[in-house]
Amino acid sequence: MSDKLNIMMTGVTGYIGGTVLKHFMNHPEFPSFNITALVRSPEKAEKLKKLGVNAVVGSHTDDKVTSDLAAENDVVIAMADADSLEAAQAILKGLKRRYEKTKKVPILIHTSGTGVLADNAEGKSATETIYDDSNPEQIESLPDTQLHRNVDLEILRADKEGYVKAHIILPSTIWGLGTGVLVDQGIQNRLSIQVPQLIRASLARGRAGMVGDGKNIWPDVNIDDVAELYVVLFNAIRKGDNHACGHGREGFYFGENGEHTLYEVGKAIGDAMVQLGLSNNAEPTTFTKEEIDKYLEGSTYLGSNSRCRGRRSRAIGWKPTKTKEDFLASVKGELEAVKGFKMLV
């Protein structure tokens, strides 16, 4: 009879999930973990098995596959899609079965995002509203209609019912290229979303761009720093210090280590384009409506404000090291990667 801790992960072929799995594979207790990843690709599943990770082929939105797998695990770390209500419900269904069978409350670590805080500034202004992850009343003031909020609330309801202990990690603008064996073997996507989207739009128009005046503010965090937050949270949960490591309404954990304006990112892209001979002017200009429709899917989301402080995250021992200055300095490398990178699927 195995005494290993059973852990289910979704999203390990993605940018966040793959990096989190890499950090768990480097965990000193990795041999005592029985990690099972739910992936769509049979080829990637076989590669994961050779790395010591179990793999089940299927979609996280398949109710039966996902709920059955969740029911077999003590811990679920969901990193596939912050906005898939179907996937969240399937995981919760399985964890409820797990609780009813074992009478032990399973753990859910769900990935949301600080997009839940976003406003509609359209790059015209900064906000002075700063959310604190150690202030549940402030987070509860968010409208139910905010991005990611419907899934977060579903998870909070399950925690309140008592059959799961739910913890929600909310990364901000994640930066840095994914690295490690999962990237090297073609299992994991190595690029984030927000900065590469801006880079692609800027390359297509021949000049760095921004939404509005780029005055809006977002937090940022390095990919390995935020992956370490998952590990720190996991370790804190296992220690059983419920005061330091809250769950449910007191289980929000922001991943941030600095703030930037959209203009600063646009300028960093512009500087890199000039250095690489891709533009003759480093100053970012405002995207036209036509460019927003063409390159940003018609959305001014990148012109929104999302400000927060990860005090609860730091209270459990998380110590991010990369700063905004590191972020802006990394943009040139991301631009070079975007130009020569074929997205993994």
Main attributes of the structure:
single chain; 345 residues; Rossmann fold; three-stranded mixed beta sheet; 13 helices; globular; NmrA-like domain-containing protein
C-alpha Rg, in Å? 20 Å
* Percent strand: 15-25%
How much helix, percentage-wise, in residues? 40-55%
Number of strands: 14
Strand order of the largest sheet: 3-2-1-4-5-7-11
Assembly form of the protein: single chain
CATH hierarchy: architecture of one domain: 3-Layer(aba) Sandwich
Task: Explain this structure.
With 345 residues, the protein is an alpha/beta fold. The protein has a domain at 5-119 and 130-190 and 221-256: 3-Layer(aba) Sandwich (Rossmann fold). 40% of the residues lie in helices and 17% in strands. It contains 13 helices and 14 strands. It has helices spanning 15-25, 42-50, 63-70, 85-102, 136-140, 149-161, 181-184, 194-205, 223-239, 262-275, 289-295, 311-315, 324-339; strands spanning 5-10, 33-39, 54-57, 75-78, 107-111, 131-132, 165-171, 173-175, 209-210, 217-222, 252-255, 259-261, 285-286, 308-309. Strand 2 (33-39), helix 2 and strand 3 (54-57) form a beta-alpha-beta unit. The longest helix has 18 residues, at 85-102. Mean pLDDT is 96; it is low at 341-345.
Task: Please outline the helices and strands.
Elements (H helix, E strand, L loop, with lengths): L4 E6 L4 H11 L7 E7 L2 H9 L3 E4 L5 H8 L4 E4 L6 H18 L4 E5 L19 E2 L3 H5 L8 H13 L3 E7 L1 E3 L5 H4 L9 H12 L3 E2 L6 E6 H17 L12 E4 L3 E3 H14 L9 E2 L2 H7 L12 E2 L1 H5 L8 H16 L6
Parallel strand pairs: 1-2, 1-4, 2-3, 4-5, 5-7, 6-14, 7-11, 8-10, 9-13
Antiparallel strand pairs: 10-12
Helix pairs in contact: 1-9, 3-4, 4-6, 8-10, 8-13, 10-13
